[in-house]
């Protein structure tokens, strides 16, 4: 089922406003492209599709009616391309967006994708899996870079630079 036109048109209006008020003369803007919402459809009760702008192409999951959103509000996105200089024209960008949506929505592709939901949920909460909990909570030797890269960290640890070491990690 296709999403209501007012949602995709509203999304395009917001990003066109951004283009004309904030992005003029910014070097990442591809002047051959325009803002366009491509193949938005209902997915798990929300509108899902690809947004093309002259500076990025993202998968977008829009909020439900009544969710907090001024202009756009809270939405989820996944970057596909940025900047957009790989696209010579709007037609090519739209074709790429349509191909992405066809691939994402293809049931055969979903079976081969491992989302590792429980692992992602633990990482989001900053928890470790039972088999990842160290036996000794005090390290006698600093872990190698490879060991640090294999260990999941919380968003807070990431933002504080915990992956760099030298801060108790």
UniProtKB/TrEMBL annotation:
InterPro entries: NiFe-hyd_HybE, NiFe-hyd_HybE_sf
Superkingdom per UniProt: Bacteria
Signal peptide: none
Any one Pfam family match given in the protein's UniProt record, by short name: NiFe-hyd_HybE
Disordered, as annotated region: 124-147
Family indicated by similarity: Belongs to the HupJ family.
Protein name per Swiss-Prot or TrEMBL: [NiFe]-hydrogenase assembly, chaperone, HybE
């Amino acid at each position: 089922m296709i999403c209501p036109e007012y949602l995709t048109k509203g999304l395009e209006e917001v990003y066109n406003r951004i283009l004309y008020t904030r992005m003029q003369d910014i070097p990442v803007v591809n002047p051959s492209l325009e803002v366009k919402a491509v193949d938005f459809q209902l997915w798990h009760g929300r509108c899902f599709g690809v947004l093309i702008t002259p500076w990025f192409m993202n998968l977008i999951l829009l909020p439900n009616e009544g969710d907090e959103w001024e202009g756009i509000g809270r939405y989820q996105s996944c970057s596909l391309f940025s900047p957009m200089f790989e696209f010579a024209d709007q037609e090519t960008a739209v074709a790429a967006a349509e191909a992405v949506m066809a691939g994402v929505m293809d049931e055969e592709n979903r079976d081969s994708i491992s989302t590792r939901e429980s692992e992602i949920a633990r990482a989001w909460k900053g928890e470790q899996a039972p088999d990842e909990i160290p036996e000794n909570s005090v390290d006698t030797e600093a872990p190698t870079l490879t060991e640090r890269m294999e260990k999941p960290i919380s968003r807070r640890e990431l933002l504080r630079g915990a992956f760099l070491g030298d801060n108790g990690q």
